[in-house]
Write a structure and sequence with these properties.
The chain is an alpha/beta fold. It has 2 domains: 172 residues, Glutaredoxin (3-Layer(aba) Sandwich); 74 residues, no CATH class. The protein contains 9 helices and 10 strands. Helix 6 runs antiparallel to helix 8. The radius of gyration is 22 Å and the shape is globular.
């Protein structure tokens, strides 16, 4: 009997580990699938409605009806968070020294399947613009740099690879999924952030546009309210999956303050507003955010809620 009890315990633990592993795999696959679907949608003709939150688009080849695609870059982009470090070969790498070039800063890991799928695209991209572009691979691996270097050599990576750390991650707003790429223009400003794997033509079109080369695309801009740097979520007036319908301007201000003040309980460590922007599929931030909006609409303002100043108080 005792032996059967132990066996049941072992089987229960094994099942739990298997479920956890499956969930991790599904999470990575989900991110990959969303990126592919997003790229397909964004590479549609320019006449098709595209939500700015979904950021940029495009393939170098024109759509079937020969209409240009649409390429989105941040309006008034923020300066790139500076860093000075050595790559895996010991060569110094700094954002200051690379000013004047387009930079694609790619956060990745050797164990990440989508990252490995993307590497050949980045290799081709770097080879195509050897003097005008620098791809930088920021490895999130916990293994020794020497092991990452062996992997890079095996993959024939032709661009510098550095080891990421918490400070670097934090400066870029935290890296919630791999791969995550930041596109930096020749003036040293971050114009785009892409999460997941995208077609080569997508990256190629972005680089060409930033270099002033011909592209069959219409370039539009968007205000960064969290799509690139999550800290800017505090400036967002709308959030994915959150309806402010029926609120007065004052109530909406209260609701947005609450959503930027309260932390999501899904474990992401972000505010509710940031979580809604970073992961629109999160059911927890969706439920909590809409609950707060309903409480504000009913006048049952949450504890410690922000109350906008009146005009007389602002004077």
């Amino acid at each position: 009997m005792e032996g059967q009890k132990v066996l049941r315990q072992i089987l229960t633990i094994s099942a739990g580990v298997a479920v956890l592993g499956a969930l991790c795999v599904l999470a990575v696959v989900g991110i990959h699938a969303r990126a592919k679907n997003r790229a397909a949608a964004l590479m549609a003709p320019a006449s098709k409605t595209i939500v700015p939150k979904q950021t940029a688009n495009v393939a170098q080849d024109a759509p079937a009806d020969d209409k240009p695609a649409v390429l989105y870059f941040a309006k008034d982009p923020e300066p790139v968070p500076p860093f000075l470090t050595n790559d895996l070969s010991g060569k110094p790498i700094s954002t200051a020294a690379l000013k004047g070039k387009v930079i694609l800063l790619n956060f990745w890991a050797t164990w990440c399947g989508p990252c490995r799928e993307e590497i050949p695209e980045l290799i081709t991209l770097q080879a195509q613009y050897p003097e005008q572009l620098t791809v930088i691979g920021a490895s999130e691996d916990d293994i020794a740099p020497e092991q990452v270097a062996k992997f890079a050599q095996k993959m024939n990576i032709n661009y510098p690879v550095i080891m990421a750390n918490k400070q670097l991650d934090d400066e870029y707003g935290g890296i919630a999924a791999f791969p995550t790429s930041f596109l930096i223009n020749t003036e040293g400003r971050v114009v785009q952030k892409d999460v997941g794997v995208y077609p080569f033509d997508y990256y190629n079109m972005q680089v060409r546009a930033l270099l002033g080369l011909p592209v069959n695309a219409r370039i539009e801009t968007f205000e960064d309210v969290g799509q690139i740097f999550l800290k800017n979520a505090a400036h967002a007036s709308e959030l994915p999956g959150v309806s402010f319908a029926g609120l007065t301007p004052a109530q909406k201000k209260i609701a947005l303050h609450e959503l930027n003040a309260k932390t999501c309980t899904c474990g992401c460590g972000m505010t509710l507003a940031q979580c809604r922007i970073n992961d629109t599929s999160c059911p927890i931030s969706s439920a909590l955010a809409n609950k707060i909006v309903k409480e504000v609409a009913k006048g049952t303002t949450p504890a410690n809620a922000f109350t906008p100043k009146t005009q007389s108080e602002n004077k």
